[in-house]
Amino acid sequence: MIGALAGATPRRVVVTGLGMVSPLGVGVDTTWSRLIAGQSGIGSIKCFDASDLPAQVAGEVPEGPTDEGKLTLAEWVPVKDQKKMDRFIHLGMVAAIQAVTDSGWVPETEEDRCATGVMIGSGIGGLQTIYEASLTVSSGRARRLSPFFIPSALINLISGHVSIRYGFKGPNHSAVTACATGVHAIGDAARLIALGDANVMVAGGAEAAVCELGIGGFCAARALSTEFNATPERASRPWDRDRDGFVMGEGAGVVVLEEYEHAKRRGAKIYGEIVGYGMSGDAHHITAPAEGHEGAFRAMKNALRDGGVDVSDIDYVNAHGTSTMADDLELDAVERLFGDHGSKIAMSSTKSAIGHLLGAAGAVEAIFSMLAIRDNVAPPTLNLDNPARESRIDRVAHEAQRRPIRMALSNSFGFGGTNACLIVRGAP
Amino acid sequence: MSEIADKVKKIVVEHLGVEESKVTPDASFIDDLGADSLDTVELVMAFEEAFSVEIPEDAAEKISTVKDAIDYIEKQKAA
């Protein structure tokens, strides 16, 4: 029951389309089946020479034939339009096209088009584009900047391009909250539907910051793993005692959200329902979480309250779990929230397989949470060889687990001390 | 066809992603070749770069067809 605090009677919001591109491949089924099989999408950085940097591993989207689950961009975005978009927009488009196609939603009337909106965000936006443009300026050629420079770097331009492609004339918006972007986009978009601003929203996040500026910048913040350059697949190891920083990934996750009655009326396939959405701010530090991750605790609690959900209803938690020191703080907060029920849940970090997709992470992980419910399977936490500390919570080390999953909680926390949590359940 | 005309055609094909056969002298960038106003700005910049000429804004505004571009560049090169 999204929007319970608003006073109005909120409408129910369901998910009717999914789209994804990740280091494990192009397509939701491709990524999900490889994830469940325990495969890793992490490798040595290919798109630039990282030998001068302390971190040399990342999760890059594999290029290649579509039928192998790889990316052939020209099959998604016409070549002449590609130069008008940074890679984060390319990836956002690939996921959005999948999600819209999957939903089968084609608004036939002007009224329907105006009730269909887009809210796809990014944590960082067109970093490589900005880098290249700055080289033009620094060589004294500011007058030679491309007219497409600004629109290819702007974060809200995924939403713009999706609306133009499909004629979706409803709310056109974008979330930008670092690594919490994906959850904020889906949660806020669900609220727009719940409160009547739209009947259908295409929502999610995209990121393509695996570039020299992105890797170098996070290296400077001492945030990335540097000890596993020779064994990339071992680098992302949430909760493990040898973890030493996150591994950056690129990709996008997009969902089609729809008002429940609207979806029922048109006989749409329904993956699940957005049950609760909670947010908070740490008011503590620009990059470090507060003691006991109390901001995360409050965000999770707010999501429970929003959905009228008890912790005993939840069987799976997709953790933020970035493979940094903060993992154990999140674990503290989840243990405290779930109490005795903690021994009955599974919690995993899918970042162990695909890395941290920053602004796309929350959207991709919300999709994983929905698929975990659909298939009754908890995806694994790879590389959790020696937990830094024991816990009553099963963190699904190494291998996926078949277990009944009624509801799932997905956590995302971002720099600046921003926290966002979603609770989803299966089709009503 | 002149060398300049050939090169202009090639740049148009490349930047607008259109088939070469459509790039006739009378083809309008916007009306016939699917360009928008930003595409034409970029196209003019590409001509400047390729032919080492400067095309001032008021002149650029008058270049709306393939022939306009060829004529302008040929005149500059002849001067």
Automatic annotation (TrEMBL), chain A:
Its EC number is 2.3.1.179. The active site is at C179. Keywords: Acyltransferase, Fatty acid biosynthesis, Fatty acid metabolism, Lipid biosynthesis, Lipid metabolism, Transferase. The keyword Lipid biosynthesis applies. The keyword Acyltransferase applies. GO terms for biological process: fatty acid biosynthetic process. Pathway: Lipid metabolism; fatty acid biosynthesis. PROSITE patterns: KS3_1, KS3_2. Residues 10-426 form the Ketosynthase family 3 (KS3) domain. It is an enzyme of class 2 (transferase). Transmembrane segments: none annotated. It catalyses: (9Z)-hexadecenoyl-[ACP] + malonyl-[ACP] + H(+) = 3-oxo-(11Z)-octadecenoyl-[ACP] + holo-[ACP] + CO2; a fatty acyl-[ACP] + malonyl-[ACP] + H(+) = a 3-oxoacyl-[ACP] + holo-[ACP] + CO2. Gene3D superfamilies: 3.40.47.10. One of its GO terms (molecular function) is 3-oxoacyl-[acyl-carrier-protein] synthase activity. PANTHER family: 3-OXOACYL-[ACYL-CARRIER-PROTEIN] SYNTHASE, MITOCHONDRIAL, POLYKETIDE SYNTHASE-RELATED. Involved in the type II fatty acid elongation cycle. Catalyzes the elongation of a wide range of acyl-ACP by the addition of two carbons from malonyl-ACP to an acyl acceptor. Can efficiently catalyze the conversion of palmitoleoyl-ACP (cis-hexadec-9-enoyl-ACP) to cis-vaccenoyl-ACP (cis-octadec-11-enoyl-ACP), an essential step in the thermal regulation of fatty acid composition. Belongs to the thiolase-like superfamily. Beta-ketoacyl-ACP synthases family. This is 3-oxoacyl-[acyl-carrier-protein] synthase 2. It comes from Tanticharoenia sakaeratensis NBRC 103193.
Automatic annotation (TrEMBL), chain B:
GO terms for cellular component: cytosol; membrane. The modification O-(pantetheine 4'-phosphoryl)serine is found at S37. It holds the Pfam family PP-binding. Its main location: cytoplasm. GO terms for biological process: Kdo2-lipid A biosynthetic process; lipid A biosynthetic process. InterPro entries: ACP, ACP-like_sf, PP-bd_ACP, Ppantetheine_attach_site. Residues 2-77 form the Carrier domain. Pathway: Glycolipid biosynthesis; KDO(2)-lipid A biosynthesis; Lipid metabolism; fatty acid biosynthesis. Keywords: Cytoplasm, Fatty acid biosynthesis, Fatty acid metabolism, Lipid biosynthesis, Lipid metabolism, Phosphopantetheine, Phosphoprotein. One of its GO terms (molecular function) is acyl carrier activity. The keyword Lipid metabolism applies. 4'-phosphopantetheine is transferred from CoA to a specific serine of apo-ACP by AcpS. This modification is essential for activity because fatty acids are bound in thioester linkage to the sulfhydryl of the prosthetic group. PROSITE patterns: CARRIER, PHOSPHOPANTETHEINE. It is found in: Cytoplasm. Belongs to the acyl carrier protein (ACP) family. Carrier of the growing fatty acid chain in fatty acid biosynthesis. PANTHER family: ACYL CARRIER PROTEIN, CARRIER DOMAIN-CONTAINING PROTEIN. This is Acyl carrier protein. It comes from Tanticharoenia sakaeratensis NBRC 103193.
